[in-house]
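Project channel, design review

CF: Before we commit to the Cyprinus carpio constructs, I'd like one complete example in the thread so the newer folks can see what an input/output pair looks like. Taking TSEN54 tRNA splicing endonuclease subunit.
RD: sounds good, go ahead.
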Amino acid sequence: MADRDTSTDAHKHSVYEELLSPSELFEARSRSHKIPVRGQKDFLPSGSEQQMARLQQCLDEHWTLLAEERVERLGNLVKAVWIPDQRLVELQSPAGKFWQTMGFSERGTQYLLPEEALYLMECGNVQVFYRDLPLSIQEGYERFLSRETVTLHQYQVFGHLKRLGYVVNRFDPSSVPSAYESQLNLPASSRDKQRKQLKRKRSRSPGSRDSQNTQTEEKTTTTDDQNEELVKTSGSPAEPPLADASDRTWWMDEDVQPPPAQAQSAAPRWDFSSISFPDLGSRRSRSVSLASPDPSLLPGALEVGGCDLSLWLSRVNVKQEKLSRRDRERQRERDRYHRDINSDREVRHCRSWAEYLQLLEDRRRRRHKDRPVHLWEKEVTPLTQPGQCTSHRELLDQISIIKSSSWSEGVSSLSPSDQWKISFDIYQPDTVAEFKKSLPGKPYTRMCVCSFDGPVPDLNAMKQLSFQSGDVPVTFAVVDHGDISFYCFKDFKLPTDVY
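CF: and here is what came back for TSEN54 tRNA splicing endonuclease subunit:
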């Protein structure tokens, strides 16, 4: 009995210690809430007593600040209960202002995530109980943080961003639109409705497809039988079917048979100096009539006499064209850069298209003789040849050995990594007033938490995270013993054209 009495007295004494007397409340209220201001940082020890005293004073102020107990009113604290099986904190009293950006409701009950409950405990807004006993902040760190919920580094990033005013939510992979949804530019509300109400259309059964195939086969067999009967009844060999109405011509009754292929004869060598082509518009030629053509060039017994040109010459405008000053300058600039091919003597001596192409090939070979021969005679040759590219874009495409790629290229063939995962969706502080947990909208960035002692993310990890995040950039939060640094990798493209 004595042991039970002493245990109950100790429990009552510990409970009463949580309630402060009026003098202690007044002392806590009049306590200074300013953080001690330190001077310049000492990077190297000097060994002087002054430096040692200054460092000891800073350490004493630091431990005194950490040892202070926070005093809060019981009426301002929201009572909550920790449920370890569900890894959630259930609210027992109405939530405060924090409910706009934190927590969720399920079946009429309000819940907080472990990181949200621990952050609100540190802010003095929530008091969490477990087995009818209040949890201290140290016990909250031990019970709320784990690999199944959030790690210590993830909570440090969460608390740091919340203190800066950001809205931080856990990352949900189902909130990222698919490639098809992003291509259609569907809003978030319509995506949610489609995911809830969209039903899969019934596809045709294999039996219906087989019946359709058998019907088509029966049709083809009947048509083939009819064709065979027609061939048997007509005792002549089968003729090719007539063309469709769209392919027929209205002036012909029979099908046109293509002429047999003729042997290609060599192109005749025309003597253009002996053939006169009359120029009726020239002032130098004032002939009134044209002589009859050579009878050997006319088909059959066709006879053609001379042609009187007096009527046609009266209709030809032989007035000399007068250009303005601006037109003459334009023509001069055009003739300066554009050479007339008819003024080239070598081109005028060409008698066929093949001779003209051969002339161009000879000129190209003559130009290539001027380049250094030793560069193209070895195994390693230049990436491009002179005169092969017509623009800077083509030149840059030919000399680019490593082709540019995007984040989403080849992601499907990569093996997934369990080390790198997106932890939080981050929303900017200026969106808190209009923020809705039911429709949070597109986040400002997505956070991947990692340690300073861990490895640097490679290209494989960055591609997977970028593909998992969609069109939202990914930020890496690197935690170094409480100090948090933020890094991001952005996709960029090298210029492909020069202007």
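RD: helpful, thanks. The chain has a mean pLDDT of 75.
CF: The first strand starts at residue 78 and ends at 83.
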